[in-house]
Amino acid sequence: MILAARQTGNANDLLCLIGMRELVRVTKVRTLYRHPQRNDIVVAIDQITGLGTFVEVGVTSIDHQAANTLLAKIERQLGVDELHIVTLPYRDLMLEAAR
Length: 99
What we know:
Layout (H helix, E strand, L loop, with lengths): L4 H13 L10 E8 L2 E11 L3 E8 L4 H15 L11 H9 L1
């Protein structure tokens, strides 16, 4: 569901009226990159306020092994292959950081 900018405040008010409380607010700026000759590869750079910058590399392929091989190659080329892999959603990371 996509809310128009003017509806965001209304949605927040409605949630409060039915007893919901804001758990955490995640502010994300995502930049997507795609090679002009490789539609099967997407790299996303997420800047999360209060957490930092995250890199997500996606490879689309019906061949699982080929996708994993290509993914490893791209991560090596980007120099992110040795970084810690984060599996938690940003929501959980924000909650953890607030403790």
